[in-house]
């Protein structure tokens, strides 16, 4: 990458909307989650550029800024998935800025689905990119396909200080009070690892316990 391209790839949007999103993230987030969120945006934006996707940088940035705010007490509900809490916070923020409803919905979906395997990549570019940026930063999916020089610059500017252990701790803390909300998600396994005796329900048991009786076997009558 040329120096100019590198510098461009490190730019975060500085519209009024983006600046306010950054301020909210800075005020309520931890240093670890702040750096993570900015890295996710920069990774995602570059992945979008590489794939020649047409996407709205500002919306992607707001989605990245808010994507983990549901882990923070101020934004956390007692009974919704943390991803939905972050999505709802972003919706509230965007609705005070007269953003069109379809754009608000795009950001909501990007955040709500950012931990869901297999679905976001088939959705709109902002939804797909937030997910791919998260996958790269958290577990290294696409590490070798990402320009190494830019990756090193991003990490130098937004360091991964004690990230692996620290992120797991802050991540789990965000939904430790509501482990039932993690059913059917990758986060159920996080709860099983850290909550002694906690076992997420098994779909087989839920199906077997359904209140419906099986029908008695009868031949089908076709008049």
From TrEMBL:
Protein known as: HD domain-containing protein
Gene3D superfamilies from the UniProt entry: Hypothetical protein af1432 (1.10.3210.10)
Organism: Bradyrhizobium vignae
Domain HD: 34-121
Pfam family, any one: HD
InterPro entries (UniProt xref): HD/PDEase_dom, HD_domain
């Amino acid at each position: 990458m040329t120096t100019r391209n590198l510098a461009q790839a490190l730019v975060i949007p500085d519209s009024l909307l983006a600046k306010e999103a950054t301020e909210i993230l800075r005020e309520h987030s931890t240093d670890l989650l702040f750096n993570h969120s900015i890295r996710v945006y920069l990774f995602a934006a570059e992945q979008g550029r590489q794939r020649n996707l047409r996407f709205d940088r500002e919306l992607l940035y707001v989605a990245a800024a808010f994507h983990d705010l549901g882990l923070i007490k101020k934004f956390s509900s007692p009974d919704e998935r943390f991803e939905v809490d972050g999505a709802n916070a972003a919706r509230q923020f965007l609705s005070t800025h007269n953003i069109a409803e379809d754009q608000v919905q795009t950001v909501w979906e990007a955040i709500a689905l950012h931990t869901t395997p297999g679905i976001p990549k088939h959705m709109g570019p902002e939804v797909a990119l937030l997910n791919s940026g998260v996958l790269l930063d958290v577990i290294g999916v696409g590490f070798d396909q990402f320009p190494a020089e830019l990756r090193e610059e991003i990490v130098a500017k937004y360091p991964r200080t004690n990230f692996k252990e620290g992120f797991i701790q802050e991540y789990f803390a965000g939904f430790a009070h509501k482990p039932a909300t993690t059913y059917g998600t990758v986060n159920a396994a996080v709860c099983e690892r850290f909550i002694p005796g906690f076992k997420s329900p098994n779909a087989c048991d839920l199906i077997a316990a359904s209140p419906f009786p099986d029908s008695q076997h009868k031949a089908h009558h076709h008049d």
